[in-house]
Amino acid sequence: MMDSKWLWFMRMAAMSVLLLLEGCRWCTIDACVEHERVALLQLKPFFNHYNEFDSWDELKGSDCCKWKGIECNTTTGRLIGLSLDSMRSGYLDYWYLNASLFLPFKELKRLYLTGSGIAGCVENEGFEKLSSTFRNLQFLDLSQNHLNDSFILSLSQFSSLQYLNLAYNLLEGKWPHIQGLNNLKILKTLDLRWNQMERFQSFKDDDKKLELTHLEELNLEANLFNNSVFATLDKLSNLKSLSIGFNQLNGLIDMKDLDAYLLVIYVDMAIKACGL
Question: From what superkingdom does this record's organism come (predicted)?
Answer without folding.
Answer: Eukaryota
